[in-house]
């Protein structure tokens, strides 16, 4: 894995340093990515390196000792980490992304958020939010959790099963959504791992095999009253401030990072492969150059949209809630572009691309996971249609 001579999306010396640190880590992650993919094992050593590098505090507010980095800067780093290992990037993205989100919307009780930030900065703590369940599907669809929170003296007892619980092997604390008994409300709780929390290693998938997204089972886990983060009714917003969910751009950044790695591998292959039937490398063939040009076009378009949108999100806080549809487009565009880029890279390399001794088949499997990360494509298209109809019909009234 190499560094581009010039990346037009790096605007300042500070951003160059952020990118360089991520590239150093990505190079180390790439060395063991195939091993963890084959085994389906969790890359604990990758997160230990992130702790040593101070990366886990990337988006923690500066007032609490963190780096306080912007959405744009977070994406620069996350995209590069994905070039080394997509699973590690996607998993880390939930941690740094959620902290950016909570920093923005301030939905946590202040003392509790300060404690979380302290743990991240000084102890390398990590966190994620577990909302998916077998019976409800994606939480973005609005299903009510089967996980229940029952009121007791001094707090709550929480019981349930969460699926797609990324980072579960390494977390000592996490957020859980649960239905509050005898009410129509759903709440988010900070749960600290104890003997009543069990991880069932169910994660055995086609792609993103090293994210540790196992099932987490809670059996009457006690949560103190002051660990209730927020509660909300059906159809209500869970936060007072609407940030448009900009933090979820860590997802398209991840898949574009994987696509970048596939593009780089294919170009290097094309430049060095010289079958004896040709006078030079296959990179000189018109149809190979056509594929390379198409890969480049798709990568440039998707990255340009992603980073321009992140810049808008950073610069205009009061307009963030209005960017939700555009944020969805960024994920849809990036994911489908990544799928196409990896496919073209495999066409360039040919039959060898199917070999498990090469990284392309892993890239191919990993980018397909993007189709199942939020927001879903049909949701994005529906929201665009609703906005367009409202705009036109409103104009005619």
Automatic annotation (TrEMBL):
<protein>
    <submittedName>
        <fullName>Acyl-CoA dehydrogenase</fullName>
    </submittedName>
</protein>
<keyword id="KW-0285">Flavoprotein</keyword>
<dbReference type="Pfam" id="PF02770">
    <property type="entry name" value="Acyl-CoA_dh_M"/>
</dbReference>
<feature type="domain" description="Acyl-CoA dehydrogenase/oxidase N-terminal">
    <location>
        <begin position="12"/>
        <end position="100"/>
    </location>
</feature>
<dbReference type="InterPro" id="IPR013786">
    <property type="entry name" value="AcylCoA_DH/ox_N"/>
</dbReference>
<dbReference type="InterPro" id="IPR009100">
    <property type="entry name" value="AcylCoA_DH/oxidase_NM_dom_sf"/>
</dbReference>
<dbReference type="Pfam" id="PF08028">
    <property type="entry name" value="Acyl-CoA_dh_2"/>
</dbReference>
<dbReference type="InterPro" id="IPR013107">
    <property type="entry name" value="Acyl-CoA_DH_C"/>
</dbReference>
<dbReference type="InterPro" id="IPR006091">
    <property type="entry name" value="Acyl-CoA_Oxase/DH_mid-dom"/>
</dbReference>
<dbReference type="Pfam" id="PF02771">
    <property type="entry name" value="Acyl-CoA_dh_N"/>
</dbReference>
<feature type="domain" description="Acyl-CoA dehydrogenase C-terminal">
    <location>
        <begin position="252"/>
        <end position="370"/>
    </location>
</feature>
<dbReference type="InterPro" id="IPR037069">
    <property type="entry name" value="AcylCoA_DH/ox_N_sf"/>
</dbReference>
<keyword id="KW-0560">Oxidoreductase</keyword>
<feature type="domain" description="Acyl-CoA oxidase/dehydrogenase middle">
    <location>
        <begin position="131"/>
        <end position="221"/>
    </location>
</feature>
<dbReference type="InterPro" id="IPR046373">
    <property type="entry name" value="Acyl-CoA_Oxase/DH_mid-dom_sf"/>
</dbReference>
<dbReference type="InterPro" id="IPR036250">
    <property type="entry name" value="AcylCo_DH-like_C"/>
</dbReference>
């Amino acid at each position: 894995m190499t560094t581009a001579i010039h990346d037009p999306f790096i605007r300042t010396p500070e951003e160059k340093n952020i990118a360089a640190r991520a590239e150093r880590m990505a190079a180390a992650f790439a060395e063991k990515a195939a091993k963890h993919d084959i085994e389906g094992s969790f890359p604990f050593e990758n997160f230990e390196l992130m702790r040593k590098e101070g990366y886990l505090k990337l988006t923690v507010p500066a007032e609490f000792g963190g780096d306080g980095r912007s959405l744009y800067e977070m994406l620069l780093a996350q995209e590069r980490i994905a070039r080394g290992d997509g699973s590690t990037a996607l998993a880390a993205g939930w941690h740094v992304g959620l902290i950016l989100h909570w920093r923005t919307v301030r939905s946590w009780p202040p003392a509790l958020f300060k404690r979380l930030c302290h743990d991240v900065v000084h102890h390398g703590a990590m966190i994620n939010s577990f909302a998916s369940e077998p019976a409800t599907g994606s939480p973005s669809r609005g299903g009510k959790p089967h996980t229940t929170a029952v009121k007791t003296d001094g707090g709550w007892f929480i019981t349930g099963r969460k699926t797609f619980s990324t980072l579960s092997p390494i977390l000592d604390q996490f957020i859980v959504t649960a239905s509050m008994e005898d009410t129509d409300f759903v709440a988010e709780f900070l749960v600290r791992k104890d003997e009543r929390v069990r991880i069932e290693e169910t994660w055995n998938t086609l792609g993103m095999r090293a994210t540790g997204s196992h099932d987490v089972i809670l059996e009457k886990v006690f949560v103190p009253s002051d660990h209730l983060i927020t509660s909300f009714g059906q159809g209500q917003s869970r936060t007072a401030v609407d940030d448009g969910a900009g933090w979820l751009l860590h997802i398209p950044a991840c898949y574009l990072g994987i696509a970048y790695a596939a593009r780089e591998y294919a170009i290097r292959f094309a430049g060095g492969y010289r079958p004896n039937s040709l006078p030079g490398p296959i990179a000189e063939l018109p149809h190979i150059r056509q594929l390379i040009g198409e890969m480049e076009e798709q990568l440039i378009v998707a990255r340009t949209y992603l980073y321009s949108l992140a810049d808008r999100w950073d610069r205009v806080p009061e307009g963030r809630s209005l960017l939700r549809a555009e944020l969805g487009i960024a994920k849809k565009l990036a994911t489908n572009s990544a799928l196409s880029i990896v496919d073209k890279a495999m066409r360039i390399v040919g039959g060898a691309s199917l070999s498990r001794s090469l990284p392309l088949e892993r890239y191919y499997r990993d980018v397909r996971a993007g189709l199942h990360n939020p927001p879903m494509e049909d949701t994005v298209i529906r929201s665009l249609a609703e906005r367009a109809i409202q705009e036109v019909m409103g104009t005619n009234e």
